[in-house]
Specification:
Elements: H1 5-12, H2 19-29, H3 32-37, H4 40-44, H5 51-59, H6 65-76, E1 79-82, H7 90-93, E2 101-106, E3 115-119, H8 126-141, E4 145-148, H9 154-164, E5 169-172, H10 186-194, E6 196-200, H11 212-222, E7 226-229, H12 237-247, E8 251-254, H13 262-272, E9 276-277, H14 281-287, H15 289-296, H16 311-319, E10 325-326, H17 327-334, H18 338-350, E11 354-357, E12 361-364
Parallel strand pairs: 3-4, 3-7, 4-5, 5-6, 7-8, 8-9
Antiparallel strand pairs: 1-2, 2-6, 10-12, 11-12
Helix pairs in contact: 1-6, 8-9, 11-12, 17-18
């Protein structure tokens, strides 16, 4: 079906015409041009369109919106995909209120139908950061695309780790693609567009208003076969994403945390409510084995420890685990000076094999 994007954008700007009404109107009239030409009475005969909304359509005069959006999109290298476009993600069409328009910087590929969303608190603990990195790294090795919301904390870590691991990642924004939020993630959004896509349903120029984020969360879960909540408080937006995933008949996984930590209160709560307790990536893979079968058969083969490491590097990695170890304890265990071990740890950090935590603690990643 051919859809005039400029006119569709104009129609989407009519007050009271949301996603459901847009789809209903196009389904009835088959083209946006015929919608504009229809009488108020004909419009009101469409399911969910009342006379008030029909009147708003007939009164609409700002027909420059669509043209300006297309011009701005071209300037930014952004493509606009409609619900009726072949490029529109099939997995997203399955939710009850898929966005009619997607603004895309980067590329959505067929393999992105095999995606897992990883979400969590903006104020992640060391535990949450380590778990997020570990899970994402293994998922990427299985050829699974990582979806998240590019927020501070767990979202940012999920995107960064996916890119470092050579995988694909998709960021869903709660603003226009020219209004990156948080602003410090502008370089990250550029990197994501080179290793997947940054997408939004909001018109260019739309700011990161609070009411936008609950709406974008349905796209995060809708783009994914399952949602993993790594760490979240009881009022975290990540829990909203989890609830939306359940409504969309998608799987929800939650990583248990310290019962004394407010940052894990939300994840522990949804485990009690029925989310799948997830202590390893294998818990996710077993649950979604049938749906992920096409990509699991093409798992990337990567060595656990790079072959070009020195004997000293290998000893350091063998002494480290996912539990934080203080530099003094590590030096004592290796029977070397603290300065020598710190010197050897630096290149391992650059290669993303180890990570330094606050207080001179180190973990293997």
């Amino acid at each position: 079906m051919y859809i005039d994007l400029e006119q569709l954008i104009n129609l989407s700007a009519v007050p009271g015409v949301g996603q459901t009404r847009l789809r209903a109107l196009v389904a009835r009239f088959k083209s946006v041009e015929k919608i504009w030409d229809a009488s108020a009475k004909e419009l009101a005969e469409v399911d969910s369109i009342d006379l008030k909304t029909a009147g708003q359509i007939k009164k609409f005069k700002n027909f420059q919106i669509g043209k300006k959006q297309l011009e701005r999109a071209k300037e930014l290298g952004v493509r606009i995909i409609s619900f009726w476009n072949d490029e529109y993600p099939p997995i997203l069409k399955q939710i009850y209120d898929p966005p009619v328009l997607l603004f895309v910087k980067g590329k959505i590929e067929k393999i992105d139908n095999y995606a897992i969303s990883v979400v969590g608190t903006r104020l992640a603990s060391s535990y949450g950061k380590i778990v997020a990195e570990k899970f994402v790294r293994v998922l990427v090795q299985k050829n699974i695309t990582i979806v998240s919301g590019m927020a501070r904390g767990i979202d940012t870590i999920a995107h960064q780790t996916a890119i470092r691991a050579g995988g694909r990642t998709i960021a869903v924004l709660g603003s226009g693609l020219d209004k990156i939020y948080p602003p410090e993630n502008k370089p990250l959004s550029d990197a994501i567009s080179q290793h997947g896509a940054v997408i939004s349903e909001f018109l260019l120029g739309t700011g990161p208003d609070a009411q936008n984020f609950p709406r974008r969360n349905r796209i995060i879960s809708g783009m994914s076969l399952g949602t993993v909540v790594v760490e979240a408080g009881v009022k975290s937006g990540a829990l909203l994403t989890a609830n939306l995933a359940l409504e969309q008949n998608r799987e929800v996984f939650a990583v248990p945390g310290n019962i004394n930590s407010p940052k894990s209160a939300g994840t522990n709560q949804i485990i009690k409510a029925g989310a799948k307790l997830t202590s390893s990536v294998n818990d996710i893979l077993v649950e979604l084995q049938a749906k992920l079968a096409p990509v699991l058969q093409k798992e990337k083969q990567t060595a656990e420890i790079p072959a070009d490491l020195t004997a000293a590097d290998k000893k350091i990695l063998s002494a480290l685990s996912h539990e934080p170890v203080h530099i003094d304890q590590l030096a004592l265990q290796l029977r070397r000076s603290t300065a020598e071990v710190l010197s050897d740890l630096l290149p391992l950090e650059f290669r993303a094999l180890v990570k330094q935590l606050p207080g001179k603690y180190f973990v293997r990643i």
